[in-house]
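3.2 Worked example (two chains)
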Amino acid sequence: MRRRIATSALIGLLALNGAALALGAGDLPRALGNYFFGPKLVRADVVVRDGGIREFRLDRGQLLRRTAMSLMLREADGTVVVVPVSRGAAVSLNGRSGSMGELASGMTVTTIREGDQPASQVRAHGRQR
């Protein structure tokens, strides 16, 4: 009797698992890095062990305003954040090297900064002025 119950339970679980796979429930992208840091990213705090513990902050949003040393972004969840940017930050515009002065309101911008430091990288996509 116990064996029949266990077999029935196993068959039921396998059927449920097969149905979930067929419906796509629980599917994880093949490349988790692309999933977590791809176009759906809103913001992230990343901690890595690289000769010690290092913490990085990533912010992505629509550029609302820029100054010489900061960017105001509206993130996908509606949060507005002001990100300080270092003077020597690497700026990328639509995949090519650029400058802070070329950033325009409405662009999608991703900033990368270590800890509480200003952003050392700015990656922007969208229409330039």
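3.2.1 Second chain
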Amino acid sequence: MSAGVYQILNTVSGSCYVGSAVNIKSRWAAHRHTLRSKGKAPPKLQRAWDKYGEAAFEFRVLVQCSKENTLLYEQLAINALNPKYNTRQTAHSNLGVKWSAETNAKKARGGPRYTVRGVTGHVTFLAKHFGAVSPTVASHRIKRGMSVEDAVTRPPMSKRDIGAKAAQTHKRNGTHPSAKRRTVNGVTGSIKELIDQFAVVPERAVRMRMQRGWSLEKALFTPPVASEDRDFTKAPKGVDQWKAAKVEIDGVVDTYTGHAARYGQVTGVAMARRVRKGWTPEDAAKTPARFPNPAANKKPSPRAVIYEVAGVRGPLRELAKRFGISHATVSWRISKGWPVEEAFTTPARPKQG
């Protein structure tokens, strides 16, 4: 997305924030990141974001223009909309600004300094020095209330430890799935106990059915369907989906493959792709391919043709053996234009020593 002016609208209160950027898409991504992580976002917009939640805000592009005119159109939008979340009511940009040496020195220091195990520095330096986590993770930990020493020295938890800690928390609070009780046919117990008592399919099948939205009773008591009784063409998926689909052309209802074979212009796959791109079924089937397949016009191999010689019909190998001649010789002769009967009955010349 090009440069222009954008608006972040609170759909609940109607208040908004107006800004401009050279790359609107990147700026919106930066806004979401800073608002979610409570970084350096506009204070009024951050407070509204925390109060109403992310779902209440909508990002809109007001004007797309060249980067030289972004401030002009931003000021016009500010005057027209009077955005409540803007700290300044004057369009301003730091693009191309050269900071003083003092300001650059302050930025280089990287914020407040801490002393951890005899080492003094900012969070980024400490995180790189101890090497337990990345500077970004260390900063997030500090924002969540962890001490600086733990944030830069404590290694990340493994997935197994995270799962064990979550299981302990669930059991302590009584929210673990194994502690959840359900009632089926007057029997109350955990899902595992009910599966062992009532299920007519394996436990894995029951849980997969519940993941797909089945009720517990339906997942427990619905018997499995045998493979030979399943109708795989009723709800095809993947590659078989277009093969099972049927369309009507000139009053004839058939699959893409059937129509393609009837008109002989394209393959069934090409016809399905054309229809998916917006072509009508008639045009997709009757329009010749732009680049025809050379293999379609290729003459069949002599070995694949059935021949008739002296009242005897058969493939090339069989007839060559019957007339006592090499099938390679017969194949070569036919490819050179010999009549079929002469190719089989003319004796081969003896090889010269």
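3.3 Remarks
The mean pLDDT is 83.
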